[in-house]
Design brief:
This protein is mainly α and 90 residues long. The chain has helices at 3-26, 29-48, 50-60, 66-79, 82-85.
Length: 90
């Protein structure tokens, strides 16, 4: 897992934890319902990481082959040897 992917997953965790924590601390049912979409939007980020952002960018550009573009990026990522997949720590 790259550092960029880990940052996206951490952002998803922070989004979900903040929304759930706020709903629990304030103990207001109406606020919890308003924060539910925020908490649910963090779940795909926690699971898929940077691929969510990649897919959203492909769809926003209106690319007619966005599914193929995402698949091609996945194939390029898998084609790299394991030594090159992880950048060196600086």
């Amino acid at each position: 897992m790259t550092a960029r992917d880990l940052r996206w997953k951490a952002a998803g965790f922070a989004l979900t934890a903040t929304a759930c924590g706020t709903g629990l601390v304030l103990d207001d049912a109406r606020l919890s319902i308003l924060l539910l979409p925020l908490a649910l939007s963090g779940l795909p980020l926690m699971i898929h990481g940077k691929r969510v952002a990649q897919r959203l960018r492909a769809e926003r550009r209106g690319h007619p082959y966005s599914a193929e573009a995402v698949h091609a990026a996945r194939l390029r990522r898998r084609a790299r040897p394991a030594a090159e997949a992880v950048p060196p720590i600086r």
